[in-house]
Amino acid sequence: MSRSSLSARVRGKLRADLRPAGVTLARKSSFSERLLPLRAVPVVHEETGEQSVPWRTSAEALASMLNSATKGSSSVEVVVSSHFIRYAMVPWSDNLVRDAERLAFARLAFREVYGALVDSWEICLDEQPAGQPAVASAIDRDVLSAIRAAVSNAGAGLDGVVPALADCINRHRRAFKGREFCLASVEAGRLTFAFRGRAGWRAVRSRRVDGALDELLPTLLKQEASAAGVQEGGILYLCAPNVREFAGTPVPGWKLVLLADAAPPPAPMVEPALVSMES
User: Fold this and answer.
1) CA gap 251, 273 in Å, rounded
2) Under 8 Å CB-to-CB from 160, ≥6 apart: which residues?
3) Could you read off the pLDDT of 20-47 as tens digits, one per residue?
4) How many CA atoms lie within 13 A of 96 on its CB side?
5) Distances (CA, A) of 99 to 91, 103, 104, 126
6) Are residues 19 and 152 in the same domain?
């Protein structure tokens, strides 16, 4: 192996972001939530006559990046775009005690919306206090298998597979004030809203978006709040890669709070991650 190849490899705790438009790799600090960007690989999806599998090209880019950038002692956390994740709210039930029962109940919630597609999905639940609804996340098993293979073949260990929404919540949890608010997680071509009430998370709504997000935000928020059956108005936390683009964006009825991409050191964990899909 050449000297340049050796110097290009990195060790320690790493974070990879898997998105439709590209894959990025960063080093995770041992003392804070700050990330040191290392590499970024754009992804171009070729049009073919076959059924589109948008995640596959991104997964291949992830495998190539990790293979050239990690050593056996590295551990990798993979954050997965909401383009590749589905969300559902699962109400609390006193009759469900075991994890298997709760997961089966969550699968039924997805099945009501997506039908038989759910049979090929891996589902995980967040851990909320008794009596509160839980957010369920689902990922296609083929996507999960591709991520695990990419990390394993690179000789690294998989710390976890985390939805972009869960990552956003955990990285910025110190900023959330009060018990009622809406979090908007922005990605290229997608907007995900998480509505929080006094009794916990009330709804998660994720949708594809074509057009300028800063211009569409007020209308989309109004539509999704109505569809979720939640009261409009309050504090709107907005997390985006280029959050400054939203500075000064008027959102009637809402107080807009922008969350910087690099979060400050985390406060003590108040509640667990929405989901961490361990290997």
Assistant:
1) 28
2) 77, 78, 276, 277, 278, 279
3) 989 999 988 766 667 888 888 898 866 5
4) 17
5) 14, 6, 9, 11
6) yes
Range of the domain at 69: 3-81+141-163
Identify the CA nearest to 201 among candidates 223, 171, 232, 169. 169
User: Which amino acid makes up residue 250?
Assistant: P
Tell me: the pLDDT tens digits for 49-62?
444 567 999 999 99
State the sign of the Cα–Cα–Cα–Cα dihedral 74, 80, 81, 83: positive
**CA distance linking residue 215 with residue 191, whole number of Å:** 13
Nearest Cα to Cα of residue 37 among 49, 51, 25: 25
- E strand map for 117-189: 121-125, 134-140, 157-163, 181-187
**C-beta of residue 124 within 8 angstroms of C-beta of residue 136:** yes
Going by the DSSP 8-state scheme, the letter that residue 209 receives in this structure is: -
Amino acid at site 6: L
Domain assignment present for residue 270? The answer is no
